[in-house]
Amino acid sequence: MRVQQGYRAGIYCRLSVDDGTTGESMSIGNQRAMLVEYVQKQGWSIEDVYVDDGWSGTSFDRPDFQRLIGDIEAGRVNCVVVKDLSRLGRNYILCGQYTEIYFPQKNVRFVALNDGIDSLHNNNDIAPFKNILNDMYAKDISVKSRSALQAKARRGEYLGSCDPYGYLRDPKDKHHLVINPEVAPNVKRMFEMAAVGNTGYRIAKTFQEEGILTPGDYLRWRDHDPADGEFQRKYSWDQAVVRQMLVNAMFAGHMVQCRKRSESYRTHKVVWNPKEDWVIVNNTHEAIVPQPLFDRVQKLMESKTPAIKKRGEPHLFSGMFICKACGRKMAHHARSNSYGDYYSCGNYRANGSGACTSHYITMQHLEDIVLADIQKYVHLLESDEVSAIQRILDIKFAEEGKRLSKSKRELARQQKRQAELDSHIKRVYEDNITGRIPNELFNTFLTDYEAERNALKESIRALDIEVRAMESAQTDVTEFVALLREYTGVTALNRQMVVKLIDRIVIDEAPEKIGRRRKQTVEIHYKFAGAI
Q1: Do 463 and 411 meet the contact criterion of CB atoms below 8 Å apart?
Q2: How many separate domains does the chain show?
Q3: Under 8 Å between Cβ of 380 and 476
Q4: Does one domain contain both 142 and 183?
């Protein structure tokens, strides 16, 4: 480096939480005082002091560091002084680019005081190794920080830096959430609108027309100082925002965190984690949305199909009409002739007769079937509500009761067999130890028993889930009856009614034909009541 007589020094100080609690010596004030004293003793002039407080050393996109680079480019700074190499940064690749390439090219003297490095004296051989150690420290801190945050997330502690929409951080415990009465009703209303068939677009449009602040604007409004003038809206309600809120289990009282992560401790690029890596802890705070309402909306969200472009609304049975043979959704087809619109199996439509059969049915025929079935139960309620409820219960539980009893018997049988296998395994171990069973036979027995036990373990788990689901479903008929009361005197179907009452419609197609057509069976599965 060409020796310069007059140095215009740029003193650079940096500190962040990544640097740990290493004491007062690392504070910005101490760095500044130490470096100013050093520069003055050398007789150099101080062009400026550049401070990045709270900025990670793994990135060089720091405001005051970039200002320092700008002053170097403008010729105002020809000497950079830092406390040590870690203050310059903790990315050994970029640190090396600056100390080994950029500063020499710009004829800038670089001094790392505590590391004894001064580019003028060519004593930089140790610098690459120190940069690597600083980088490794940053990586270690990143791993430890991530582990600590995940541990807190698994305990159900809220880790966000601001209040989530609908909630406030508890003043007594910032990791616990309490309901925000100011905006929580907006959240509940959103779910109630979705539960009766409103699309995300329609909900967003309604909220926008009513002047309800978006989550982003609401946060800004809370921090707004009236002295700064009238609050200006920045965002508009969008259906994507609505959909994100409608699938957020936080509103049902569950903590969902670790959905995103930093891809690298160097780049800080944020990427989505796979859903199986999310940390979900149930029942950590008070729910805004009751669980049954939340679950109902999730089913609707999963069954959404593209809207009709002309009307911007889903078809009458969109997302809920299913082929029993293959489980695929029935595809709607518009037809302008006298026969009208019709449905056919989506699998058959896409892949031909080798995949499934048509399951053809006209939309008018389907509407007639569904309307007549709803009217049947409405009329039952109108004539004798008590008898109607009992009849629905009898129909519902006649079939489900048989399935439940059968599943319980099978579960008991498998649990008994599992206990027997545990006993057999214990016995063969004892017989092998005492010499009654040779090693070869012991290994054969043990392999067979453990294979059967592992298969039983999975089967028992699945049966237990099935039994518990059927038991919980037997308590919901009263809610179905409450829904039916809203449609006394119904004479026509609409989307809102269909979504509110019906979970799914399944069409079967028996192999035998009657004339030119196959005989079809349409099953209507109602919300809370199932197929009755």
Answers
A1: yes
A2: 2
A3: no
A4: no
